Structure formats: structure tokens, C-alpha cells
Amino acid sequence: MKRASLCTPLALGALVAALSFVSACSNDGNAADSGPPMDAFVRPDIGPCATSADCPGSYCNAGSHRCCELADPPYEICGDMIDQNCDMHDESCGDNDRDGIQACMTGQDPLGGCDCDDESAMVRPPRGNVAGADEICDGLDNNCNGRIDEAAACCPACQALGADGATRADVCTSSGECDCSGEPGVGACAVGLSCCSSGCVDVTSDVMNCGFCEAPCTDQADRCTHSACACGTDPPCAFTGVCMAGACPMM
């Protein structure tokens, strides 16, 4: 009688159909070691996630909103808000001038919001709660927008406007024309108007720019008259009152 071999495949039906058959035997007919359990090779889901609960064996990357998958070989790109090496934080590119803006990564376009000169606190772009540096006439790109000395103060065309040139325009175009960045392409604002972030406005009557740019009236007033906030024809209401239809509430 022929002796049965340990290597004779078992008829496992659907299981064999579902899995690629791997022989449990070596070439000499002896049974091989069973090896690690099958689930040891199952990788965690690396798809989109909302919280780390969506990432078995990993964590949810706050920058990419995907489960973190360790790079192989491990590496880390600074300042991109992505944790390539899965150590639960992004590496800083450095802030040598301590102006609150990270230095640019190697090859990064400064227009993306990184510090185009991390050795000078006088040079930085606006980002988050950090205001960009003022553009001054120093031969540098102070606000990292790709242009040098584009402020109105550095522009002969703006200086030609006279004493009110600084309020009627705030930027010099690449062609040397004086312009208002809040309403680009119109040139300097007309006499009597101020160049604000919302465009050319009359700060003597504009409720969102009353008296000067970016100075909105509060709920205690409903209009701007002669550069001052007012409730109807009266001064603004008391702090807790809200001006409605030109009148303060009766106390």
C-alpha cells in the first residue's frame, strides 16, 4: 500500500478558490513551519479619515485627512503640514528670524506663504494671524509677493499725486502706474476717496470705513457722518444698546 504524503493537498473547496494556494511543504516532502499568522500581513486602511478611530494601527493625519502611512524609507518634508514619518507632528523648516513665519522648503515657491528671507524679521509674507511685513523702499521684497518696492511710497507715479497720494493709492503696478490694490486696475482713487481693502471709498460717510480705512462702526451706530459713527442724528448708543432705524433703545 502506498504511504500517504503529508504534502497531499486537502480538498478545501471554497477556501482554496478564495485564496492562492501556498504549499505547506518543502521540496523534500516534509511539512514546513506554519510561519506568521495571516493577519500579520494585513495593512491598516490608509484611506480618508475623520479621526484616528478610522485608522486601525495608525492615526489620522491632520494635514492630509488620511490615515498616516510610514514612508519607506522614512523621510519628512518640513513645513508642508504632512507627517510623512508618522511621528505625529510635522517638522519645522525653521524660523531663524523669529518673525512667526517658517522658512521656505528647498525649491518651494515663496508665493505659497513661506518666509522668503528667514534671516530678516523685516521680510515675511502675511499668514494666519501674522501680518506681512510692510513694503518699504529698500530694494527687497519685504512681503514675499514676488515684487520689490511696489509700495506707493516707492512709486514716482504715486508721489506725483501730491500730499494725498498715500491715501488714494497703495501700490505701484509692474508697469509703473499708481494703483489701489483694493480695486486693481482703476488707478489711483479719485480725489476725496481713500484706497481701502474694499476699494475706493469715502471715509467721511462709509459705515465700514468711517474716518479711516478698516474702521467699521459698531451696532451702536447705523451711519457714518463727517467721518464719525452716529445713530441717526445722535451719537452712537450706549455700549449695550443697538441702534435701530436711527434711534437708540429707551433705557
User: How many domain units?
Assistant: 4
Oligomer: single chain
Task: Name the strands of the widest sheet in spatial order.
Answer: 1-2
Helix content: under 10%
Spatial separation of the terminal alpha carbons: 112 Å
Per DSSP, the total helix count is: 3
Number of strands: 6
Rounded to the nearest angstrom, the radius of gyration is 33 Å
Uncertain regions spanning at least 5 consecutive residues: 1-45
Description of the structure:
By secondary structure, the chain is mostly loops. 5% of the residues lie in helices and 6% in strands. It contains 3 helices and 6 strands. The protein has helices at 14-18, 156-159, 165-168, and strands spanning 171-172, 178-179, 194-196, 199-201, 223-225, 228-230. The longest helix has 5 residues, at 14-18. It is flat. The model is unreliable at 1-45 (pLDDT under 50).
Please outline what is shown here.
The protein has helices spanning about 15-20, 155-160, 165-170; strands at about 170, 180, 195, 200, 225, 230. It is low in regular secondary structure. The chain folds into four domains: about 45-90, no CATH class; about 95-150, no CATH class; about 150-190, no CATH class; about 200-250, no CATH class.
Topology:
Layout: H1 14-18, H2 156-159, H3 165-168, E1 171-172, E2 178-179, E3 194-196, E4 199-201, E5 223-225, E6 228-230
Antiparallel strand pairs: 1-2, 3-4, 5-6
